[in-house]
Write a structure and sequence with these properties.
Rossmann fold; 3-stranded antiparallel sheet; 2 domains; disordered N terminus; elongated; Arc Repressor Mutant, subunit A; single chain; 6-stranded mixed sheet
């Protein structure tokens, strides 16, 4: 697995599923220049594994890959959900385009291509996907080694595929709320109003929930999250 660009939580993550090293490096460089983070899969099976563990915002999927070809990967991705997919192939055939669109591809790029155009296509697909998303659907939050999915109420470790943290609803709300603005400090009153159940009115209750959340994160290898700010409240902490 190759990772490019150190990024903040707000940058979209693109999974580049491409077995050609030179093409993959060029695409990664252009996406990084465009403000994206990237992961690279060298075959179809690795692409599916990284899709589960990293939960990318978009998949750039080559049709002709070892292991599982792009059509098989696309079919499985559509079975899992609606992650935007752009198919990449050397075959400039209408039937291939129709196959990709029928299975559920969001766009189609033919080799040889202009990498800048591929980035522009990805930006357009993400804008379109966001505009079509149901009201209230929140984007996945990635900060430090945590992958926080508000839609599924799941917290995973980016380095450990399939590992989910066992958090209570209140702990999940606290973590997601802090992670959306990892450098901002929030007062206990703010956290009480936005993250705790109705009926909880004592600020010291926040401390109790934060303490339990911190302990669970430490057990998972995540230190100093959340971080207490003396006399003020809490921020996400960690490396953010």
């Amino acid at each position: 697995m190759e990772t490019t660009a150190q990024a903040g939580a707000g940058q979209a993550l693109v999974l580049i599923a491409e077995d050609d090293d030179e093409i993959a490096l060029i695409l990664a460089a252009y996406f990084s220049r465009g403000g994206f983070r990237t992961l690279r899969a060298q075959d179809g099976r690795q692409a599916l594994a990284l899709h589960l563990s990293a939960r990318p915002d978009l998949v750039l999927l080559d049709v002709q890959m070892p292991g599982l070809d792009g059509w098989m990967v696309l079919s499985e991705l559509r079975r899992r959900g609606g992650t935007p997919v752009i198919m990449v192939t050397a075959m400039d055939q209408d039937v291939d385009k129709l196959t990709g669109l029928r299975i559920g591809a969001d766009d189609y790029v033919v080799k040889p291509f202009n990498p800048a155009e591929v980035v522009a296509r990805a930006q357009a697909v993400l804008r379109r996907t966001l505009a079509q998303a149901p009201a209230g659907m929140a984007a996945v939050i990635r900060v430090d080694d945590l992958v926080i999915d508000p839609g599924k109420h799941e917290v995973a470790l980016a380095h450990a595929p399939g590992t989910l943290l066992n958090l209570t609803l209140t702990e999940f709300k606290l973590l997601a709320y802090l992670a959306r603005s990892p450098r901002q400090v929030f007062s206990r009153t703010d956290l009480l109003a936005h993250c705790l159940p109705e009926g909880d009115t004592l600020e010291r209750t926040v401390d109790s929930h934060v303490s339990k959340l911190r302990r669970k994160l430490e057990e998972a290898g995540i230190d100093d999250v959340p971080r207490g700010i003396r006399g003020v409240g809490y921020k996400f902490g960690g490396k953010a």
